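Researcher: Batch entry, complex prediction.
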Amino acid sequence: MTYKSAFTYPLIICIFLLALSLSVCTSCTSDPQPPEVLPPPPDPVSLSFVNYYVENSGGMFGFVSGGFNNYISTVSELAQKAEFITSGVEKEFNLINGFSPVVITPLGGSASDFTRRLNRNGFNVGNIQGNDLNKMFQIALNEAGEDAISFFISDAIYDIQQKDNPLQALVVESRETRRQFISRLNAGDNVQTLIIQLSSDFSGRYYFGSRFGHVDINMPRPFYIFVFGHSDLVNRYLTDAYIEALSGYQNHVRLFKTGELSASYAATAHNLIGQFNFERGNQASIRSVRTDRNNIFQFSVAADLSSVPLSAAELMNLQNYQVNPNFEIVEIKPFSNSMLLGISNFTPTHVITLKSQNPWGVLNLKLINNRPGWITSSHTDDDTDVRNQPAQTWGLEHLISGIEEAYSHMSKAEYIINMEVFIQQ
Amino acid sequence: MRDLFLYLYADLLSLHNAQFQLIFDHALYYTNGYTLNGFIFILVPLIIALLFYFLYHNPFAKYWHWLIALTVCITIVGIFTHQYNVYLIFSTYHPDLRLALNTPDTGYKDFAKNLILNLTIINIFLSTIMFALYSLVFKQFSKSQGHIPI
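Model: Structure tokens for the complex:
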């Protein structure tokens, strides 16, 4: 072999390799991978109309008889809500009472005229002898739509006409409530029901729900504001902060169709115990997962829960999350930039840390709409001793159960959001 | 190509630590740092081997001449790898990574220093293997140094 030929072939090979590597290098840029392009947010729903239905059956007179109190303050505040004024929203005020038929007394669109009716004389119209709650729900629900919110203010006590078996009557009423709500939800739009429990001084006649008769009382009693409307509107105009600042506020719950929401989420190494590698191109998948020497694997899921209409406290409550039996939720924290999660295509709101000794498989982290404890603690089946039940409402649990069951029946899933993470060995 | 070297360094050689993902993403992956680190341990030994077997003519060369060439190779690889990764990591433009590196509590700075050292050691090791492989091939065609290293 000559000197030239001995050198030539390796040289050709090396030049080829160099050319290949140069071409690869020049085709590679040092620009970072562009962030995923997110679709533009949908146009926000706009509010055009607000309907107010204030129950003025005899049992409500006690709230407007003792002078200025939480009831009058809150109802006035809602009637003259600043954002409704600045948004130029049309309003319609009504008193509503009666039992078969229900009587509606329109009061026009002036908030000041309406608030002047919040007294015994102003309430003494229509049929104060009874109230058909389910019919009232139907009326208020039907007025709520894509651009309209309805308020229904009541003591939420069913007026059962047959008092010989009140508990059976409650079940019947509850099922009728469920029917009314299913009928409304069947229209297909995204209607949310917000139930706000408040307390106010009550000075007057309390009509028993569980039996005939009444008793005069002068003590705090619960009243309720039911808000119906498109979920976006209700969340926007009735924020948790606003609701909790209402005079006499006690509790609230939001009921909405579940299984229709989605949230951005990603597995992260926050609070990591053990080891894993990220799956390129899929933030919901991790691989090469290994436990530590104590056989523990712990990691976190960062999620954007800003679209979920639950309060901040509910989103931080571990009881509102379901997870695989082999996993345990360690903690839930609000996201902060100091966590350095390195997520670029969305901004998380919460970081949920989970732990397991056998993590491999598909993790399903579900956010559910648990019934808050106040509903049960505010319920009573027997209001005979009402003087010692300042915070209880006869039949409340049955009423809210009827609404809950309607939403549950019309929901696509039992959970609000399911965050699925693939954990590979 | 990028994912091949990612697999080599992060998975096969277990360099990856998810707790410091910002470094692996924004200093090494998206900047093609893995790829260029790979080219260092592939190309530098190739060039040194070519020079040794085809431009350095010494029919009386011994094995220790080859060792000198190897030493030169791994020195260059070590310096290139170290300086390149120092640049990649500590000159990053990414705001989260910069914040992490400049915040003592995060541990990012210490980890980055160890990572750079580990990458340097790994590349030195890999370049040694590559130089040996190139030597076995090129010695077949070399007129003067066909007898070394063995």
